[in-house]
Amino acid sequence: MYTTRSKWTAFVTIVLVTIAVITCAGTWFLVAQPAPARLTTSDESSLVEAFRKVEVASVSDAIEQLAGKRMYMSHRMTPIFTTKFAGIARTVQLKKDEGNNDPAALTGMLAAIDDGAANSVYVMAVEDGADIAGMGGLMGTAMAARGYSGAIIDGGVRDVAYLRKIGFPVYATGIVPSTSVHHYRFAGGQIPIQCDGVTVNPGDIVVADSDGVVVVPRDRAVEALALAEQMDFKEHSMYPVIEKFKSIQEAVKQFGRL
């Protein structure tokens, strides 16, 4: 025969157990379900921040799947130190003009930096520029001061020790001590350019990490982000499955991702 106290104790126990079960079930649901895709991301800074959290390889796969073409730069485009960033493309084109003595030949290149805002990525194409430094420490300092995410140079970079010291990330096709002064002329800014074989338009999203550099056309950015997030979730969920079953085939069968 239950006393009033024992009945109350039993009731409290049932309530606590029920709450625990619901909490565990809710936690399992949150862990087991992929993060909901962002269907709309109108705020540019939020979009950039979201791209910083996904793997560049997933972004590459996502945009190739959506656009039907590769949007990643080649193995030649390498970082001066290990980094990860995302930002909005700000494009610059330099053309050869050997022996010019025009003091204003590169003014537009510098103005393009000073006109940029935080979260910009300086994307420069240097015509036949493998052995010409498209930027160095002074330009990198200006970009860092303005809050740029980084720089991508289809050409060389110099003052690498200083750029590493201030922690400004640069991808380039090589490290060289040369200068563009008297050899090149500013040929346009905020225009479509070809950077290491990839078309880059002003306003495109540029993402970079240890795997390389990918360009996401601005009009496909939201859907590319959503798909990349899904790919990331699947891949990260596969690691423990592979370790558990000691089989990559089992993980691929479960998640359909490779």
Question: Can you characterise this structure?
Answer:
With 258 residues, this protein is an alpha/beta fold. It contains eight helices and eleven strands. Strands 1, 2, 3, 4, 5, 6, 7, 10 and 11 form a nine-stranded mixed sheet that branches. It has a two-stranded antiparallel sheet with strand order 8-9. The chain starts with a helix and ends with a helix.
Brief digest:
With 258 residues, the protein is of the alpha/beta class. 41% of the residues lie in helices and 23% in strands.
Secondary-structure map with pairings?
Elements: H1 4-32, H2 44-52, H3 56-67, E1 78-79, E2 85-96, H4 107-114, E3 120-126, E4 133-135, H5 137-145, E5 150-157, H6 160-166, E6 170-175, E7 184-189, E8 193-195, E9 198-200, E10 205-209, E11 212-216, H7 221-245, H8 248-255
Parallel strand pairs: 2-3, 3-5, 4-5, 5-6
Antiparallel strand pairs: 1-6, 2-7, 2-10, 8-9, 10-11
Helix pairs in contact: 3-7, 5-6, 7-8
Uncertain regions: pLDDT < 50 for 5+ in a row? Answer: 14-40
Distance from N terminus to C terminus (CA atoms, Å) equals: 62 Å
CATH superfamily of the domain at 57-224: Ribonuclease E inhibitor RraA/RraA-like
What would you call the quaternary organization?
A: single chain
Helix content: 40-55%
Number of helices: 8
Structural descriptors:
258 residues; Glucose Oxidase, domain 1; nine-stranded mixed beta sheet; two-stranded antiparallel ribbon; 41% helix
